[in-house]
């Protein structure tokens, strides 16, 4: 499934405590540069790795949390601590038998984020790579025990037909499918379901040949797909990849509550659009172009102001410091983010009184006629 659902393991501690050395030992490769010079690691380094009898993991090597003697060093520390929103387990290396002030502050921050923690001595001295892996395994359950089923609470039986509607436009990457489509196909294979993939123009033909158990569409053609299905097989449920991800990684209850704020938007209100991926913006961009346009059309308010956050960039400071600065936040499906990262952003919005919803649920509200 790639990095999106892989367990993320973060390595934290003071400068030169052996974080990068340990990552190299665990992977058996020169994954990251190591040096006797303090501060070698600057930005977080992520390395995908296949752990036997467990599955894919991502190792996140970070800068020392005591690199605070310069403005640049403070930025490194800030960037390192930001990774706590995405990791599933924190491996903390200590210089001595007891944590010093900076190490205790780090442990307190990890605990505040409710992250399972593995504490190791400097450079994991006296421990083999397998012993360290064993401690990490004990700290976190297998992903199959923590991630909800991809199709939610729907009963998908072997042989059921799942119809995937996947438009190809200027935003679709050449030569591959976007990640939610790949996830749906893999989930269908795991269930021994029959996955049929079409573009919107081929949907009518597909419905003459197949009677699907479920139709999953890209959110941008939700209206068009729903109208075709209502005419030909109204008993078949239509959902979107983004709505499925709302259950898988988000908070459906808070998303549903957040939808109510759409009808309360007023002229000049700010809407925060949260994208978890980084990509070149095109005229067909769902988050930067289509959702803003549809919101203006749905509300009749052209003066809405849109603020965008991409990738792992932090949420705007105004979200935390200025009550009422944002009238609504809209979170993408989060296909390339860990569940912890999506949940952290949802909690941040909710904690600061900002209604939050999800791309797919918002598009369904705006585009699908009752």
From TrEMBL:
Residues 9-119 form the G domain. The lineage of its organism: Bacteria, Pseudomonadati, Bacteroidota, Bacteroidia, Bacteroidales. Residues 255-366 form the Hydrogen maturase F tetramerization domain. One of its GO terms (biological process) is tRNA wobble uridine modification. Residues 156-250 form the Hydrogen maturase F dimerization domain. GO terms for molecular function: GTP binding. This is 50S ribosome-binding GTPase. It comes from Candidatus Rikenella faecigallinarum. GO terms for cellular component: cytoplasm. It comes from the Bacteria.
